[in-house]
Design a protein that fits this description.
Shape: extended
Strand content: 25-35%
Strand order of the largest sheet: 1-2-3
Largest sheet: 3 strands, antiparallel
Distance between the termini: 48 Å
Order of helices and strands: EEEEE
Number of strands: 5
């Protein structure tokens, strides 16, 4: 039988403006693909869900000039 103990680590994070977080997985498989946009928040604030960003225009471009635009489908 193995036992372990988890001790929380407390640390200070300086205040900053929220940053845009892009959560996506684009592969060589056929789509559809999903791109989710969120605003960052301080680790100590322990929100249940990050703040979702709506109304953005998302276009991905590769090094060969290929482009793919994404449309908002949920609110």
């Amino acid at each position: 039988m193995a036992a372990s103990c988890i001790t929380p680590i407390e640390f200070s994070v300086p205040d900053s403006d929220p940053l845009l977080v892009v959560d996506a997985a684009i592969t060589t498989d056929n789509g559809p693909y999903t791109v989710k946009l969120f605003k960052s928040f301080l680790v100590n604030n322990r929100y249940e869900n990050p703040v979702t960003e709506f109304g953005a225009q998302v276009t991905l471009q590769d090094d060969q000039g290929n482009e793919e635009s994404y449309s908002e489908v949920e609110k």
